[in-house]
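Regression report. Comparing outputs from two consecutive submissions.

Submission 1:
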Amino acid sequence: MRQHLRFYRHRWFKVWLAMTALSAALIIMMEAVGNHAVRPAAFFYGAAAGPMALLVAVHDRTGIGTSVPGVTLVGMFLFGGGVALLLGGYFDSLLIPDGASLDILRVGWIEEPAKLVPILALALTGRHLTKAAGVALGLSCATGFAVMESMSYAWKNVDKDSAVGAGMVLFTRGLTTPFGHLVWTGMVCAIAFEVWHLAGRVVVTVTIVCAFTVAATLHSINDGLLVLDVPVSVRLLFPVVAAVSYWLFHRATGDLSPRVPGGAAALAVRITAPPGLQPPAGAPPGRPA
């Protein structure tokens, strides 16, 4: 419990605080001197604060950031997230003409598949089929999607209110999107890539279909609670949906752990193994005598 209460010491919190503060500073400066050229930067830092904090927290817990080359993760963030937003935006407009109606409950069944398309395209090549790699790719694509979507909402709010109002939208979404877009896609990828790694190829199983169904349902319920005209008592279920979503993601990735360097592994063997099983000097790390 003491460690949980000291969250302000963790890297993820420092990342979130620094990016949020920088976004707020840019917005304040923009309103004070009227320099609107910095608006995209202010919106980007605000939109990315929450998702980037979650990425850091997950990497520190699981070490997934080293499972895929950095250039691949950046590409999935930039282009995978962009393709997902392209597909999601098109089909949202096509199938949900009135965002305030019950049609909003279709959103999860549109945007969740859209985020999986770039990931599936890479998985079909046979590369990066490990569970750790799948989670890293899923979170990268979902982060790109969430950041660009949050920026679009902020831009809409500027037309109605001001940059300060847009900043509040970014702050709110920065607290919610990590427990939405990122964990939904991350959970599906964790389950799917675990199956694909064992099979050696992309296959469709009942387990994967069930995981996707849960993610899409949680996504639709989340959006319905935010958009539909429901009683306040029902709207209070929003944090419950977020908590359940994160819990499912945490359970799906609970078996992932950071890679142990060779030297650390060898030291662990020498410390924990009985004297007769310790490797001799010069033996390869981790191999008993």
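Submission 2:
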Amino acid sequence: MPTKVRETMNVPGQSAGRRRGRRMNSRVPVRLEWDEASGKRSSAEVHTRIVNPYGCMVVLPHALALEQRVALTNLSTKSSNAAIIVWKGQARPDGWEYGVELLAPEMDFWGLEL
């Protein structure tokens, strides 16, 4: 069963369980960078599966912890943003599904009309 850190952010005017922003299936090349427990810096280049103005879903062949801080770079626009792992979904043949929340998102981070 998927593990969730939180259902939704508390946003005035939104009821519990509603998502922020419109989600879009989109394959955007991204790089995630994070610090291992050993202090070593690791990274992986993958594609998003779903994006919205506040984050994305990716499948990553590396094990990350919930609430782990990462740097997310959109390789198409060369924009980078601090982010956090907020959801871990199903294991797939190519890795684990992760929900990544941008911490201070620019509304044009994805270069898409969302």
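Expected: both submissions complete independently.
Actual: both completed, but the second showed a warning that disappeared on reload.
Relevant detail on submission 2: The mean pLDDT is 84.
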